[in-house]
Amino acid sequence: MTRFTVNGNPVHYKMDPATPLLWALRDASNLTGTKYGCGLGQCGACTVHVDGVAHRSCQITIGAIEGSFVTTIEGLSDDRSHPVQQAWVAEQVPQCGYCMSGMIMAAAALLAHKPRPTDDEIDAGITNLCRCGTYPRIRRAIQRAAEMQAGGDAITAAPPPGIKPADAAAAVPALSPPKPSR
Q: Is 128 exposed, middle or buried (0-12, 13-18, 19+ CB in 10 A)?
């Protein structure tokens, strides 16, 4: 039996301590934002924070993190207001989107430890793979998030989750049909 904290909530997994954290999060906690990519710790799609440090959750067992604090993409911010999430949308980083949650978690950990990373530090710190090749946009988004964290203008690019289509449509006035000319 393993106990630690996930996204601020204490958890007690009644699973084999050798179970990879990835599967405990996805299968037992239904936190499916953490993706399974390669299972070898190479792609980074499964990146989460363990005690504030980015880890590939497919490579760390739940027994190894007893008493730790784990943050997944779901726990990074309740309303998508984290600077990295906002910059990701503003810089139009996602293409297929599969690697994005792990990439965002890696970028957030990088910025927590290096608030103003250079391009070389970004390249060294973000080893996640993006099959779509959005690396130039990823770098711009990380730089933009760094500016935001340093007191730059906030971005309101991503709406809070749960907006109903009717509510979104209500904000835009309906178009009237054109009046016939006489």
A: buried
Give the Cα separation of 65 and 51 in Å (integer): 9
Cα–Cα distances (Å) from 146 to 48, 55, 100, 114, 174, in that order, read: 19, 21, 18, 9, 39
Task: Walk me through the domains of the chain, giving residue ranges and CATH numbers.
Answer: 2-76 (3.10.20.30), 83-149 (1.10.150.120)
pLDDT tens series, the chain, 182 aa:
799 999 999 999 999 999 999 999 999 999 999 999 999 999 999 999 999 999 999 999 999 999 999 999 999 998 888 999 999 999 999 889 899 999 999 999 999 999 999 999 999 999 999 999 999 999 999 999 999 999 877 665 555 555 554 554 444 444 445 566 66
Strand-strand pairing, 69-71 and 2-6 = parallel
